[in-house]
C-alpha cells in the first residue's frame, strides 16, 4: 500500500516524444502517349524531445562563486580536497543519479562526520529525492533515514527552511517507500517506528518536549500502521 501511495505521490516526466508524419503524394506522369499515376512516398519524420536538462528544478548557474548551499558558495565545498569527486560531478551535471552502486555510495555520504561537507552531500540527497522515480526511489530512503537518525537537530533545522512543508513531505515519503533496513520487519511498522524514534532521540542534543513530539510525529509519518 505504501508503494502505491508513493507512486501516486511522484510525478513522472516522459523523456521523449515522437511525432510521426507520413503521407503519399499522387503524381501524374506522361510516359510515351499514356498518362500513368505514380506514387511518391514521403519519408517519415520523427522528432525526439530528449531530457537533456535533468537539473532544471535545481535552479543552478554552475558558477561556483554564485551558487550557494547552506550560506556557503559551491567553491567552499568542491575546493575541499576531501570532497567526493562524484559529488562534484553531480553538481556540474556530468553525473546523473540512477539505480546503480555509484549512486548508492554518493547518497550515503550524507552521514559523514565532516561537518564542512555534510551540507553539500545533504543537498545532493535532497535534489535526488526531488527528481526520483520509482527505481531511483529505492536508493534514497535509507540514507534519508540514517541522516535523520544521526543528526536529528540538523534534520529539523533543514526541514524548517521550507515553510511550505513540501521538503518534509518528500523526505518522509522517501523513507516510507524505501527506508526499511534489512533486519526490519515490514509487517511490524510499529516496532520499526519505535526504534527509529528512539535512535533519533538518543542523538538529539538538548531535546525538549517539543522536539520529542516532532520526532514522534515524523516517525509515524515514515512508518505508519498497516491498513487492515
Topology:
Blueprint: H1 2-9, E1 20-21, E2 24-31, E3 34-41, E4 45-46, E5 68-69, E6 72-73, H2 74-78, H3 85-92, H4 101-107, H5 118-131, H6 134-137, H7 141-150, H8 152-159, H9 166-178, H10 189-202, H11 209-222
Antiparallel strand pairs: 1-4, 2-3, 5-6
Helix pairs in contact: 1-9, 7-8, 7-9, 7-10, 10-11
Question: What is this structure, in a nutshell?
Answer:
The chain is mostly helical and 228 residues long.
What does it look like?
The protein is mostly helical and 228 residues long. The chain has one domain (60-222). It is built from eleven helices and six strands. It has helices at residues 2-9, 74-78, 85-92, 101-107, 118-131, 134-137, 141-150, 152-159, 166-178, 189-202, 209-222, and strands at residues 20-21, 24-31, 34-41, 45-46, 68-69, 72-73. A two-stranded antiparallel sheet has the order 1-4. Strand 5 and strand 6 form a beta hairpin.
Provide tags for this entry:
228 residues; mainly alpha; two-stranded antiparallel sheet; 11 helices; 46% helix; 11% strand; globular
The overall pLDDT, averaged over residues, is 84
Count up the domains: 1
Low-confidence stretches: 4-9, 11-52
Beta-strand residue percentage: 5-15%
Taking all Cα atoms into account, the compactness measure Rg is 25 Å
The biggest beta sheet is recorded as: 2 strands, antiparallel
Cα separation of the termini: 11 Å
Going across the biggest sheet, name each strand in turn.
1-4
Number of helical segments with 4 or more residues: 11
Given helix and strand content, the structural type is mainly alpha
Strand segment tally:
6
